[in-house]
Design a protein that fits this description.
This protein is α+β, with helices and mostly antiparallel strands. 70% of the residues lie in helices and 7% in strands. The protein has a 5-stranded antiparallel beta sheet. A 4-stranded antiparallel beta sheet has the order 2-3-1-4, sandwiched between helices. Strands 5-11 form a two-stranded parallel sheet.
Amino acid sequence: MATWLYRIGNFAARRAWAVILTWALVIVGVAGAYTAFHGKLSNTFTMPGTQTQQLSDELAQRFPSANRGSGQIILTTGDGTALTEEQKQAFSTALNKLTGEVSSVDAVTDPFTTTSKLAEAKTQLDEAHAKIDAAPAQIEDGKKQLSAAASQIEEGTKQIAENEKKLDDSQAQITSGQEQLASAQKQLDDAQAQLKNGYAQAEAAGSPAEMMEQLNAQQAQLTAQQNALNQQRETLTESQKQVDAGRSEIASKKEELAEGQKKLDEQRTQLQKTESELPAQREQLERQQKLYNFTSGYRMISEDQSTAIATVSFKKKIYEVPSADLQKVMSDIESANLHGATVHFDANLSESALGGGSHTGEVAGMVIAFIVLMVMLGTLVAAGLPILMSLVGVVVGVLGTLSFSSLVQMSSTAYTLGLMLGLAVGIDYSLFILNRYRTNLLEGMPKNQAIALANGTSGNAVIFAATTVIIALVALNVTGIPFLGVMGNAAAFCVVVAALIAVTLTPAVLSVAGTKIMPKKLWASIDTPQKIAERRAQDAERTEKPNGWLRLVLTRPLLTLVVGTLALLAVAAPMSQMRLGLPDASNYPSDSAAYKSYALVKDKFGEGMSSPLVAVAHTPANMSEEQAQQAQIDIASAVKERGGANVQAVVPGGMTDDRTLMIFQVIPAHSASSVETEELVHELRAVTVPVQGSEVSLGIAGQTSGNIDVSEVLAQKLPLYLGVVMGLSFLVLILVFRSIMVPLVASVGFLFSVLASFGAVVSIYQLGFMSSLFGVDHPGPVLSFLPTLLIGILFGLAMDYQMFLVTGMREAYVHGKDAATAIVSGYNHAARVVVAAAIIMISVFGGFIFADSTMIRPMGFGLAFGVLVDAFIVRMTLTPAIMALLGDKAWWMPKWLDRLTPNMDVEGAALSEKIQHERESAADSGNS
């Protein structure tokens, strides 16, 4: 590897402009790829296999509206006065326009319309209760009225019967009279016939007067009788008419009574039906009342009427919504004339729509790095070269990474981590090669050979160091956590680019820089062979004498070890209280838009309104509507009972058409990152409710529960990952140092560095110790994936410092120096560049402590503090102390293992010796 890198360095030195042009084309290429293929970044983290993700996938299929992104818009007067009707109307108008003007918006929930509908529902329920309560009395009144009507019908029936009897009697009398009339008429007709015969006889006798007078008298008598009969007949006929009219009237009365009876029967049936249905109606009303009562803790307008919350629902998940659409939602609402009212936007809207933000901290870190380089190297060109190399590296690495953001779900943290590492290692890697190049020049080497040898030696160490970092970062994929793997891959890619630039572009730029790479004073110190020899002798003498800090460490190695270890344990102690989580709006800086909206919601509605949970229940099939409603009540009641004071409200959110899946919105009483909300999620997942003979379990989904799931899985994976990295570091260091104790010391030292870094992060970002100094306004749980990232990144960086410090000790020991002298020689050989590299790392990482993102801040601090502890305490203090205590035992290795272990010439010692031998041979040939 060293020889190969030597050739690359030599080629780059000779063809410098060709190499520089190649990298310029690479920059153009990745910039074009970024422009063409970059996608939307996300700060939403998902975890396949967790309950949240499983439910989210199911809801996406069966209940899409419950699985889409949303954001809150808060309208407020700002001074506690009630919102005016004019302000409400203006806000509602602006909200309603969003669905037509922003393509990503699916729907908006107007707080005033929703509240009005809830008030109407309450009025309807109150009216229904009044009707139900009055129904029993009304039914009793109806029964009395029916009883009275039945009595009337019965009385009418009796009267009809009596009248019919009277008519029958009258009819009998009429019939008897008619019979008597018929008999009398017959007698009269017979008498008339006899009289007629008498007239005939009288006429035959000559109509004697006496006979005729007698016959006429009889005729008058018969006529009078006939008239009497006719009069009786007319009387009977009139009586018959009266009887017939009476019967007709009775028939009509009967029909009226029959109709009345029919109506009475119908009314009785209806009354019985109403009475029988009343319990069911009362139960239905009670169910509706209970469902309504669940909304009592859910308000969209504050109690003082000064603030209202509107919800904007999108057609996609929030991280899939284009930033331009989110910006338009906010700009459209802000530009509306709200008549003095103001609006705030929650983190889903304000943070998702943000761009890169301010980079003041990063710039400050780079300035400090430049100052350190200037002090160390002495010229502007030399100080600027490592920074230039790191900038080229992050441009290629970050733009290249972001080019894949349309294909892979990628968080903004992923590329920021790549930026952070790319800057830090880019400076350090170029610095190592630059420093070795200057050393070679001071040894009197020609420029191109000095560049090539620097690339073959320090470049070889850079490749090895980069490989350890890359392995640790890529190993994040073994956790099985996709977003963490993406972060690791993105950061690893930036480290790969930094290493490639260090061994290709750095030699080319060094060649172009010429003499400007060292100050004139240094050039003057090597302008003759005699001065070079004198300088070499002085360096050899200086490297074997302990000075400053090292002398103090080696004077009291045991005391140094005890004090250093106790100090690290004290710093690490708070990690026992570490609680993992993902930041929510409650952890944002006080002056951020997200926190202002959160604080307003917390003050007016309760902090849980900003972080609702989605409860999902799978219910039995074939339920009726009433059974489904009762299931909703039972489940919501169980949630409220189990959650207790940690639940502010439970709102049934609907069900699928087949009634086999129900969702509920659970409003916690505390913020998403609080211990109480985390406990609430676990409590609710333990809820089981009997529904139609089946035990229904409750699942919890939503962003809040998703963050909790992610944190728990990461906490479970952390010991495994730490074990893998520790084991890997031990094996790698055995190859490098051909020793058992040195790798053991290095691995344990790395463990102490990591634990101390954890403890410091917990102290500041969770417990709030000196939090104001670091801009932490609202301490909260530690970023869930931070410990895993710290392990991976600090492992690679720790191995860098271990290698650059201890390989020099090993080389000195192998070349015959005693263990104590080897410690001093190796330390003095590398201390200056390691200190500079560590300060640069700390400066670059520290620049991110005050970044806009609450996720990046603890990451920058953890890495900066970890480098501080590992470089200055573990590697430059405890390691020399332990090595001094061990003496020759530090380099012991079983012979069988020594035979099996390949020779890893990390710093290219063999190449250096070969080049030195060639130079000496050439010098001897020249002298002869």
